[in-house]
Amino acid sequence: MVSAMLQILTKQNIKTMSHLLEIKNLDVKFDTDEGRITAIDNVSLKLDQGKVLGIVGESGSGKSVTAKSIMQLNPGNTIYNDDAQIIIDNENVLKFTSKNIKILIKIKPNRYQSIC
Questions:
Q1: Confidence category of residue 24, pLDDT binned at 50, 70, 90
Q2: Which of 26, 59, 73, 89 is buried deepest, with most CB atoms within 10 A?
């Protein structure tokens, strides 16, 4: 998968992205000793290049879980819904492993460090 991802990133005719970051239908749940809890329910957002996005809300409203989902830093008991998408460079990062994410940041540091 890593070599396929590198091929995608090194193609000369990469299409212009419509959004720098796009989240679609994100639900995040955690399995705990007390049962499954919902941290985020149906979050969708878009961020265009050159724009700034602020996520605000009360304590416990899911701001940090949303940010950690983008960076794939949530703990091992995290459950994402099957139709959720976090799209960066036309790729759904929810399908990547943490190793893939680190490779992306090394290959294109200016693009991905600004998101993460």
A1: very high
A2: 26
